[in-house]
Each structure stands twice: as C-alpha cells, then as structure tokens.
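Hey there, shall we discuss this one?
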Amino acid sequence: MQPWPVGRDTGPEAQLKTAALREGASLAVVAGFQELVYQFYCEQGRQLPWREGTAPDPYRVLVSEVMLQQTQVDRVIPRFTAFVQQFPDPQSLAGASTPQVLAAWQGLGYNRRALNLQRAARMIVDLWGGRVPEDPVLLQQLPGIGPYTAGAVAAFAFNRPQVFLETNIRAVLLHFFFADQEGITDKQLLPVVEAVLDRAEPRTWYNALMDYGSDLKRRFPNPSRRSCHHTVQSRFEGSDRQIRGAVLRLLLGSNGVAITVIQKQLDVEAERLKRILEGMVKDGFVQKTGRKLIIPST
C-alpha cells in the first residue's frame, strides 16, 4: 500500500478535521473518525509480536507495555522477543536472579523498569497464582504500573473498554479536535478519548489509534508539542543514566568489581560516581561488599 501523504491531510482527513473543529466529538464526527482510523489500520497497521493471536497473552502484553515506557517500538521489538523467550511466564521471571534479568534488559535503558517488572511478576505469582489480574485497580498495585499502563494492559490483554492516554493517542486527538489550540491538558483530552472509543472492540481500536498516531507524527510536526504535558527527553550522552548503565555492564558476569576500578574504567569524577553508586545501592541495583560492588543475586 502507498504511504499516506507527508505534510498534509488527505481529503477525508481534511474534511474530518474541519468537522471536528466545528462540531467537536459529535456522533457524525466520531463515526467518521473511527472509519478513518480503521481504514488506516487495515491498510498499514503494524505487525508487533505482543499483538499475536486473537487473545494476546496478558503476561506478554504486560512485558511489552513496561518496555514501551519511554522507549521506541523499534528498539523494543528485538529485546521483547529475546526477553519472553528467556522468561516466558511470570513464574520464570519471578524465579530468575537479578543479574539474569538485568542482562536480558540490556539495550533498553531505564533499568529500574526491569527490577519493577520482576517484582510485579513475583506479586502476580504470590497473590494471583501466576495470572495477570484483569482489574486496572489491581494492576496499579504492581510496581511501576501507573494508570496508563494499567489501562493499556486491561484493554490489550482483556479487551476491556478502558479510557487512557499515551503519546500517540494524544497526538491524534490534538491534530483533529484541538488543531487551533495550545496548552491542552489531558483533562480536556480524556472526554474525547471516551467519546471516540469503540467499546465493542477496544483492543483493536487502541491498536489502530496508536498506529495512526505513530504515522501521523511521521507525516506532520508532532502535535503533542501543543500539550501542556509534553516533555523533551533529557540528553543521554554524559548523563547519570549513561553512567549507571555503564556500571551495570561492568558488573554483569563478574564476581564484583572494585570501586576504584569502576572509576578508572569510566573516568568519572569521584564525588559524582559516589553519588551515583549510592543511588544504585538504594534502588537495589548493586550491593557493596567491602571495596567491591556486586549485583545482588535476588
């Protein structure tokens, strides 16, 4: 199929935007909006490994949603595939060692998510017999799971008609329903999310809406910049995040590394490294044993 035109709305898109600005989320606009999004999805929807099957595995959905927090889809796909091969269910992830989990997470960044995911797997095993809960209220009890991730897991894994926002959904709604406004809040967007939701098939709808939003951001300047919640990710090169990741890579597969060796290898100012390492100890990534650091086994 031909990609949709870059830098301009197609005929139906332009007509829909005009109608949405005039009428808001009227019944006619909602019907036209759903038809447009589903048409795009039918023609150019993404094939993603966590979407496989008519009823995706809730555990795989949970893993994918945690990985997709602050990480692009293209980076997630290969790491997701390898991760679920190594840890195919909550029981295997819950029983793994911390170094195993962190090693499997390498390349994704924000390593705290890996520890939270393992803690979540242990809760799922202990509290729910290894079955990911369907209720978003219960899902939000899991470490690292906020309202968006809970809503997404409920929708994608269990086909529940939850109302939630993420960056691609936000971009689509801003493009069509708030095209002439700046500083839009999520409180203003959520009623529109609810109005356009296909309650009969929320799983397919959200997949389609996110794919449309991803493509829309390719074709136009990102509409999400007009959201008052839009933030620009901080620079990675030379950041504390980069140093923390480098420390973990030095420790993985070792029996411990002396702090003096870490400082020499990474060429980091002593006080800064001390502060970073203290934070990593507090977060549970590393443990001090004498003058060495190790990754705890559990």
